[in-house]
Amino acid sequence: MARERDCGLSNSEFGLLKYSEPGLLKNSEPGLSKYSEPRTSVRGRSFMHRPTTDHPRLKSGARSFGFWVVGVCVGRGVRGTLSRMATVLIALGAFILYFVAYHTYGRFLARRIFRLDPDRTAPSIEFEDGIDYVPSRRELVFGHHFTSIAGTGPIVGPAVAVVWGWVPALVWVLVGSIVMGAVHDFGSLVVSMRNRGRTIADLAGDVVTPRVRILFLLVVLMGLWIVLAIFGLVIATIFKLYPSSVWPVWLQIPIAVGLGVWLKRGGSLLLGAVVAIVLMYGTIAIAANFAWAQPTLPAAITDVISPVGFWTLLLLVYVFIASVLPVQVLLQPRDFINSWQLLIAMGLLVVGLVVSHPPIVADAVNFRPAPATEGGFVPPFVPFLFVTVACGAISGFHCLVASGCSSRQLRSEGDAQYVGYGAMLTEGFLAVLVILACCAGIGLGTVTPQLYILSEPPTLIESETLVGVEAWMHHYATWGGGNALGNKLAPFITGSANMIQSIGIAHSLAVAIMGVFVASFAATTLDSACRLQRYVIAELAGAGTMTLTSEEVCAACGYPSGRGLSGPIEETRGLKGPAPAQPCPECGGTSRRFAPQQPRYPISRFVGNRYVATAIAVATAAVLALSDAYTGSGGLAQAGKGALILWPIFGATNQLLAGLALLVITVWLVKNRRPFWVTALPMCFMLAMTGWAIVGLVGQFAGAEGKLHLLIISVAMLVLEVWIVVEAGVLLFHRVPPGKVQC
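Now predict its structure.
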């Protein structure tokens, strides 16, 4: 062994030469027999090659070599198996991480930070009106909340962001949803429940300053305006690309109404849910297998208005009706059905993932993707990753759903963690599945666009099925953030259908399931956004459902408390507190509740009316959606995509809402002397990333032709962010005493 080491070779080099046949070594002399000792040179040093005889040491070496070969083969097999199973391990690891986070960090927030009290009277009970304030089972509220915040956000965002690499997108989804997004949603829900179910934007006037309330409501108004217009376009695009999704989506309405009637009459929730789900998937199966169930608009309609414009207008009419109806009639049961649809679809994806275990074909990291056109703009990885992913990690729209809708339906504060924190973690897991579908499922096969010769009938001349890396490159060879909406949804729907097909479901049915899945969730977001826009319009007009002018009245007859219902504040032995409630002089009752007073001005009462406010929300969204009818040359026949003119700033606007909501929650925690770092750190990060992104957008729009409107709005958003942050900073710096917010 000493002679072997003296050769100056590494172990691998020596082993290679030691067991090589004579005549195959570098510089070996030809013609020598296997018993000769040719001189071989490696790295300039020479040594004598030992004869390949039946020497005992060589037999031992041969056995060692055999073991080495077996070890290499086993190692490569294990490594190959791990590579093929990487997607399954990622999904399993994400599920375990979310489960642990809910029972550790979520419980810490519930007990130590927000201090949930199940015995506290919930706003849904205190202000029950049968329309917006409706005490409901937590399963129903979870379904409504989850489907409202999910929408297409956790689909489109990650499906675009993976162009920077699947690793950064996955890490941000996992970390962001646990320590930022779920905290943001949970905090918005609790703060709203502690303050009569008011929206977080309206509540900003009490927590920070009245000016911040107006500024916050303006940001919310802009964000919801874009949501209403763009999500109508999302559903219309799905209807156009996947006709098998049309009837199932519309037939969900009568199914949901039937479920609502069943529950109102005291029917079993489990039985009603099972029947509704069976009926819904029955409509999907019929639509996927029969051509007559895949409708197309007649020429009499498309000659006047484009299909996208027609579906958008019809959807806006629907959301007007859905938003003025009591929540238990349509909104809650439909969202409950959709929540089960989502859970079933996620289950199918997980099973398909385990069966097919597709390898990841995407780039792990690609901080500088190529532009779609030469010289085109590609947003930098930082900060735009944190703006693009949005709902999969954290989204400002969620604070509006939590504080404007869900807080008015939960019948117990003890359910806030289940709805606020748990729904966001479930959405984070959906975003993980989206990443895997786009980065691995797509590799199972995607069909290139079909080209036809214009003949009768049209003749197919080109269509190719791509697999593996080629399939990935077909969708992600260049930056696709600015491409058509259908191109952003296609990788997810195709990749998901591929994985579902592996468990024996026909590909056409799998595509129909995922198409209905996306359209249904966009519809639930549309419902909630319209109802929220109604609240915002009423609050801006000074006629909010719950304003600071609310007063305490008798629960039985409505007699005002100021006329003898409750006694004055008195001081007894150094302790201050309310005196025992006095009987109501009208009916003798002692139970009380808060009730809103009438707005001061008649115009406020008019605008605050739920029908008028909803009509304003729907009409303004229709104007934006069809704005390309009067800015383009095609008129209504080519209209329906007007909302896309504001799409480039939607991500920044949405994330700005998240940062501002965290700011309000942080100030609320400071005022109530609670640990505030849990929201202060995410707040600082989101405001910094959003401000950075808006500055980048301002630079992009300033030098672009036809982007003046985007430049103006971006500058306005930047000014609003700085203004609100300064107002909150001054408040905290001067340590203003606690206001009227309840702890």
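The longest helix spans residues 507-540.
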